[in-house]
Design a protein that fits this description.
Two copies of one chain form a homodimer. Chain A is an alpha+beta fold. Chain A has five helices and ten strands. Helix content of chain A is about 20%, strand content about 30%. In chain A, helix 1 crosses helix 2 and helix 3 packs antiparallel against helix 4. The two termini of chain A are about 25 Å apart. In chain A, about 40% of the residues are buried. The interface between A and B is medium-sized, with 21 and 21 residues.
């Protein structure tokens, strides 16, 4: 089985079809990393991410783990990956983990940021990681709605996968919203998120901020267990996985 | 002659052949802006930048001015430009200026930043605006050298245009150098800079930081008035025009 390595990754998701490998030839982040590790190890290596990120979603602190034969060190692994990975994927940290460590199963908390430019035009240097809404938002109304979305609930209304068979109960610990000049950031902290869940919550909160919905609707959206009741799926480009806690 | 407008601009220079228009079809920042203004005014408009930035160089605060017929307002000009300019060029500010205001002739001070990643790999979100050196730098030695490059001097050794006929005397008021984690930033403040001057100073200081040159060579490089004596021209991607003061 070899040694279990844990890595922390940064990536600009813009030109990828998301995290998850979809076959040998697909342009995914998992696929890119596995290809470099296979070259290093001389045999196929499977990596486990803390969760899938959608096409176009970014990461400042994605975590993954994988097993390599003896004879490597975290420093060598980090250096090798950073040398051969494309310039939009970067290993920030590599370390040896306990044999049983699994980046998805052992994750206890995840933090996402969703960035929205409310001004007419996005910052030219930040444009790839912001959603260009271009309209002002009522932050106070969004905060009221956000508070009503926190807690332990069945988040089926906020799940992009309508065929989801497993439990759709999750705990959202905290949603914070702040504005710096024309840039609005939503921070989501939870024990795990369903497919598209952060983006649907962001879209719903944006609709509240635009005055298209009232914050007091939130409990009804949750109770409906119906995706149609929630807001739109905010674009991938505004979303970034900031941190995974164990 | 119409009304004189002053605009402050941000751009990611990566995909442009620099600021200066080089004919109708060239891919330059000046050209892009003039094309939009011509559309707005219904007649050709010439804009004056505070200075040319090289191909690949960025700006957080480039300043330009131009004359438009009566009937526009700064708000309309800003909105129109931001609507039709590509997403890597953005107008931060537009205002009416005095008739005689000229963005280049009236500039009294310019501030540039040059960013260097000394770690093995650049931040994926910042990579387009950093030079990926990938080696550690001796910041103290660079500061010693930088102090010796400040003052009022003939900077001919740091001029990329060897056929320059006008004066090559300039005043560099201050060069500050700081490091945050593996990112080193050089800040240059001066009353004006010759062609490639900031990049040649950055390259020379990098060579000092790598131990390839001694800081005490700086006065001799200046005195030589010989481009061959100075260091390499650091890559355009690390350079950003931060501010122009009037």
């Amino acid at each position: 089985m070899g040694q279990n390595y844990k890595i922390v990754l940064q990536y600009e998701g813009t030109r990828y079809n998301g995290w998850q490998r979809q076959g040998r030839t697909e342009n995914t982040i998992q696929g890119k990393i596995e290809a470099v590790l296979e070259r290093m190890a001389g045999a196929p290596v499977e990596i486990h991410g803390s969760g899938r990120t959608d096409a176009g979603v970014h990461a400042m602190g994605q975590v993954a783990n994988f097993y390599l034969p003896e004879g490597q060190t975290p420093e060598l692994v980090k250096e090798y990956l950073n040398r051969y990975l494309p310039e939009d994927i970067r290993v920030l940290q590599a370390e040896l983990a306990l044999d049983r460590f699994h980046s998805r199963l052992n994750a206890v908390e995840k933090i996402y940021h969703y960035q929205i430019e409310t001004g007419k035009k996005r910052d030219v240097f930040q444009r790839r990681i912001q959603y260009g809404l271009g309209k002002p938002l009522d932050i106070e109304a969004m905060r009221e709605a956000a508070a009503l979305l926190c807690g332990t609930h069945d988040y089926k209304s906020f799940c992009g996968n309508q065929k989801m068979k497993k439990s759709t109960v999750r705990t959202v610990k905290n949603i914070e919203i702040w504005q710096e000049k024309s840039l609005v950031t939503l921070m989501f902290v939870g024990n795990g998120f369903l497919q598209h869940m952060v983006r649907i919550m962001a879209g719903t909160l944006i609709e509240v901020g635009l005055g298209e919905r009232l914050s007091r609707q939130m409990p009804y959206i949750l109770a409906s267990l119906d995706r149609q009741e929630a807001g739109f799926t905010a674009p991938a480009e505004g979303l970034c996985l900031m941190e995974v806690r164990y």
